[in-house]
Write a structure and sequence with these properties.
The complex is a heterodimer of chains A (320) and B (321).
Chain A (H helix, E strand, L loop, with lengths): L1 H16 L14 H8 L8 E3 L5 H7 L3 H9 L33 H14 L7 E6 L6 H12 L4 E7 L2 E2 L2 E2 L12 H5 L2 E6 L3 H16 L5 E6 L17 H4 L7 H11 L5 H23 L27
Parallel strand pairs in A: 1-2, 2-3, 3-7, 6-7
Antiparallel strand pairs in A: 4-5
Helix pairs in contact in A: 1-11, 2-3, 2-8, 4-11, 5-6
Chain B lengths: L2 E2 H15 L3 E5 L15 H4 L4 E3 L4 H13 L3 E5 L10 H15 L6 E6 L14 H5 L5 E3 L4 H13 L4 E6 L2 H4 L1 E2 L13 E4 L4 E5 L3 H13 L5 E5 L2 E3 L3 H11 L2 E4 L7 H14 L8 E3 L10 H7 L3 H13 L1
Parallel strand pairs in B: 2-3, 2-4, 4-5, 5-7, 6-7, 10-11, 10-13, 13-14
Antiparallel strand pairs in B: 1-8, 6-12, 9-11
Classes of the chains: A alpha/beta (320), B alpha/beta (321).
Chain lengths: 320, 321
């Protein structure tokens, strides 16, 4: 969580400084506990993870090195996306980390398909899948189709819904009409729970239980986390549409602060330990950014410009 | 003993399932029922747990295939009608078509699309989607016109490590027959000279190949030898074979059943005028359907699409120029 927060703050400052990061920067501030609590349930190389826009913490917990993140944000040719895609649109599908596209809800069926194929080939064993979405993404047809299909197939998939109350600027009142998003779980014939997503301990408990149920054959598991996005949609957005009453409400608690207090209160870490950890994490992030800054940018003359894996089917360039 | 175009598609899927355990079939009503057109008849019986009914969720069907492909499977997805693939459009063009380029992980999926018009099918069960998908990088678009191509190109599609849009024409399902399936002659990406000639070239694909051949017969009575090029795949498009044909004849008619704006026939004309303008003895022509939704009543439908007589009339105009 801390690494995620510090890394994203660094990315935000690079964005604001201009020049280094093209395109946007999208932060998961306020969602780290909910995201990381899912990521730690998953085992890289065995489970399938389809993270979304605000899952930096979950990706780290899953085992993605922050090098992959920084390289993708800076467009380095050494990164997993090689400058062909950027920022949060990254992954290593062969390691079970799917690379999201921007179309919300469309990753759910892809994660389900991976699990389906493993079941067919007899390699599913106790692996599970997981994917994340926000309150806004639940309104898409793709989300409905994907979740219904996963439910029909009784696939071991966790669907994590971060209800951060705003889809970009649109409040929940303009997004859905049910009392609580988790009510929809019954309609799909799957299990669903709600959790206070500002509280790491509750999140860990809920995701652990969901992962256990999924591994035990319980089918899809929906977890709805209640929280507030503590940043704009991206760093270009000041989130001025979120009223002060919301910003002072219970769902606006900073999950990182809550987790640190919890650790201190339980005597797991002292203030000095936390300070030290903070410094170590900052050093790590700074070193990573500095390393990637020296790496080569993609060269359009070395790019092969081929979208097919079968080179013999790539058409010649028909230039006028 | 003869085999229809539809039976060839069924046989190809049988072979694909038999040859490769990573192949599976997913689509609406395709398991016990055998598919709306019976293209998967008995396959679920012959290959238990390899042929699955899908919910009416074209988006999720394609997304699921992409996820399965990442895990090493080679799914064949049946769209009940090509028209409904518009619901899965996002997954096809944004998920499947970009996967390899973005992540270096190939996406070997085949999406079968029962395409094109038949009398009485109306606006939403008659569409030809090849141009829409050909527009997007990262997809291979095949359009078989013969029983042999329906069989071999489907088998080849399943073996390709890229997403293939397999446009099978419903009008040919039952009408088109072959005595037997011959040897595989051409790979995907190569066009075929369906009829040699020297006065004009028709470049076309799918069911229109047969209309073009009939029009060519008609023109033969007037003493004209019309060459017919069957593209077989619209992407990649075999520009070399098209240009070589136009070099022989000097005249070009680009023919397609799809809507007229943009599309495959426009692409053919663009390529020939760009790379072979000097080969042309007359302005090239295009013939497509009318620019309206596809009508229901046979009287209207027959006038909406190109037919032997409208193709023959177009050829006569082309030859007069």
């Amino acid at each position: 969580m801390l690494l995620s927060r510090v890394l994203e703050e660094k990315l935000g400052s690079l964005y604001r400084a201009g020049g280094r990061i093209v395109g946007g920067v999208y932060l998961g501030k306020g969602q780290e506990a909910f995201s990381a609590a899912l990521g730690v349930q998953l085992r890289k190389g065995r489970d399938i993870y389809g993270p979304l826009i605000r899952d930096q913490a979950g990706r780290i917990a899953f085992g993605e090195p922050i090098l992959d993140c920084v390289r993708t944000y800076l467009g380095a040719v050494t990164g997993p996306m090689r400058g062909r895609d950027g920022n949060i649109h990254r992954g290593r599908p062969k390691e079970g980390h799917l690379a999201m596209i921007s179309h919300l809800g469309s990753l759910l069926s892809v994660v389900a398909g991976g699990l389906f194929a493993r079941r067919l080939s007899g390699t599913l064993a106790d692996s599970i899948g997981a994917t994340s979405i926000g309150d806004g993404g639940t309104s898409t047809g793709a989300f409905h189709e994907g979740l219904n299909m996963a439910a029909v197939e009784k696939l071991p998939i966790i669907v994590s819904i971060a209800n951060n109350q705003y889809a970009y600027s649109t409040p929940n009142t303009r997004q859905y009409a049910c009392e609580n998003l988790v009510d929809r779980a019954a309609g799909y014939g799957i299990e669903g729970v709600t959790v206070d997503a500002t509280d790491l301990a509750s999140c860990l408990k809920a995701f652990r239980a969901a992962a256990d149920r999924a591994r035990a054959g319980g089918g899809p598991q929906m977890i709805v986390g209640t929280l507030l996005r503590l940043a704009g949609h991206g760093e270009h957005d000041d989130a001025s549409y979120i009223p002060d009453t919301k910003r002072q409400g219970a769902s606006a608690r900073d999950c990182l602060q809550v987790a640190e207090d919890f650790a201190r209160d339980h005597g797991w870490m002292s203030s000095a330990d936390l300070r030290e950890l903070n410094e170590e994490v900052r050093r790590n992030v700074d070193q990573t950014v500095s390393k990637v800054s020296k790496e080569p940018a993609p060269d359009p003359f070395k790019e092969n410009w081929q979208a097919l894996s079968c080179a013999e089917l790539v058409e010649g360039q028909h230039e006028a | 003993m003869s085999i229809t175009y539809l039976e060839a598609i069924r046989e190809a899927q049988y072979e694909a399932l038999r040859n490769d355990p990573s192949v599976f079939l997913y689509g609406q009503d395709i398991a016990t029922f055998g598919g709306a057109f019976k293209a998967t008849k008995n396959l679920s019986k012959e290959f238990p747990n390899r042929v699955f009914d899908a919910p009416i969720s074209e988006d999720a069907m394609v997304g699921m295939a992409v996820g399965a492909a990442v895990e090493g499977a080679r799914p064949i997805i049946e769209m009940q009608f090509a028209d409904f693939s518009s619901i899965g459009f996002n997954q096809i063009v944004n998920q499947a078509a970009t996967l390899f380029w973005r992540t270096n992980v190939p996406c070997p999926i085949t999406i079968r699309m029962p395409s094109g018009g038949t009398a009485g099918s109306g606006p939403f069960h008659s569409q030809s989607m090849e141009a829409i998908y050909a527009h997007y990088p990262g997809l291979v678009i095949v359009t078989p016109a013969t029983v042999e191509d329906a069989y071999w190109m489907l088998l080849d599609s399943v073996k390709l490590n890229d997403p293939v849009i397999f446009c099978e024409h419903k009008f040919l399902y039952y009408h088109l027959k072959a005595d037997q399936i011959g040897d595989r002659e051409l790979p995907i990406g190569k066009a075929r000279i369906a009829r040699p000639g020297r006065h004009a070239t028709i470049v076309t694909y799918s069911a229109m190949v047969h209309e073009a051949l009939r029009a060519a017969e008609e023109l033969q009575l007037d003493g004209y030898q019309i060459e017919v090029v069957d593209l077989r795949s619209v992407k990649p498009m075999d520009t070399d074979t098209i240009l070589a044909s136009v070099a022989r004849t000097g005249r070009l008619l680009a023919l397609g059943e799809a809507f007229p704006w943009g599309g495959v026939t426009a692409e053919i004309i663009a390529r020939v005028t760009t790379d072979g303008f000097h080969l042309l003895d007359a302005p090239p022509m295009r013939l497509n359907s009318k620019d309206t939704p596809i009508p229901y009543h046979p009287n209207l439908w027959k006038s909406h699409r190109p037919t032997t007589s409208t193709i023959a009339a177009a050829l006569r105009r082309l030859l007069r120029n």
